[in-house]
Specification:
- The chain is of the alpha+beta class.
- The chain is globular, with a radius of gyration of 15 Å.
- It is built from two helices and seven strands; from the N terminus they run αββαβββββ.
Amino acid sequence: MEHTTEDTKKVEILKNKLLVKVELLLQENDEFLPFGLIQDGEGGFRLLSISDDDEEYTSDKAVKSIKAHIDSQVSNVEQIHSGGFCQDFLINDNDAIQLNLISKFSEGWISIYLPYFILEDRKIEYGSIIMGEPME
């Protein structure tokens, strides 16, 4: 399979859908639990989340579970094009979104950090994107 402009557009749409959901959660709750999205080749999406009702819930466990599921789907299911997940993160004591993306055409995971500030009027102001180390 060869990477196309259409593939790039699909990953861009995935990224935007993840960030729209993050923004809604931040405006409602000032924070968010890790969640992910899987995108099929037709442009459909499936939400992935882990309930925090379990006594053994941790953000790390949720991230590992969501990441493993996305890895498996993107690698092994022909109809799945790409996936990504977000988690709330701290960089130098400032809030940031850790955004992680993978597709059938990427060379592994792409990670970025997007610092954010919640303003008094509940709007979200973003800082400069910081590229992260590739995830394994």
